[in-house]
């Protein structure tokens, strides 16, 4: 809740990335994920000395279990993000979000603007949302930006790119 009693919404701001749109992270993830099964195969297959066999097998089992859990979490999260994105594509309503505050902040070594917006959906109570706009773009208080909102849930995404400054008045 914000200080004025308007609920804060949660939702995707940008389309969820597909695994192969990030080749470095995909390759790193596959390398890390294969460590457990490879250690398990090496321990069971006799590729390690007998003194270390038990430790390698136990390590392989633990790493394989962690790999399975992380994979399940990633798949379920991605499926949820895609479902929310499809919901916005099919049932979304495009409305204007009004910038209520814009504050320059540091994000890492760069400067960003923290923007809070009030979004009003017909037939529903308004809600607020906040975003970090990267770069030197100055976002003015009172500016309006297009937002896609689900008509029955507090799920939204920006239709305008705030960093480009394409705003509607």
TrEMBL record:
Membrane spanning residue stretches: 24-48, 54-76
Record's keyword terms, sorted: Membrane, Transmembrane, Transmembrane helix
Protein name as catalogued? Uncharacterized protein
Give the source's domain of life in one word: Bacteria
């Amino acid at each position: 809740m914000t200080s004025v009693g308007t609920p804060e919404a949660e939702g995707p701001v940008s389309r969820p990335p597909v695994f192969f749109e990030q080749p470095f992270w995909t390759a790193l993830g596959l390398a890390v994920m294969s460590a457990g099964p490879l250690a398990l195969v090496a321990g069971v297959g006799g590729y390690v000395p007998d003194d270390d066999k038990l430790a390698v097998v136990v390590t392989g089992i633990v790493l394989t279990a962690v790999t399975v859990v992380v994979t399940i979490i990633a798949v379920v999260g991605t499926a949820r993000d895609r479902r929310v994105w499809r919901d916005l594509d099919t049932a979304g309503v495009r409305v204007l979000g009004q910038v209520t505050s814009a504050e320059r902040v540091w994000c890492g070594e760069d400067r960003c603007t923290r923007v809070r917006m009030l979004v009003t959906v017909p037939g529903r109570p308004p809600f607020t949302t906040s975003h970090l706009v990267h770069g030197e773009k100055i976002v003015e208080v009172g500016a309006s930006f297009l937002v896609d909102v689900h008509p029955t849930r507090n799920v939204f995404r920006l239709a305008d790119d705030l960093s480009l400054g394409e705003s509607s008045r």
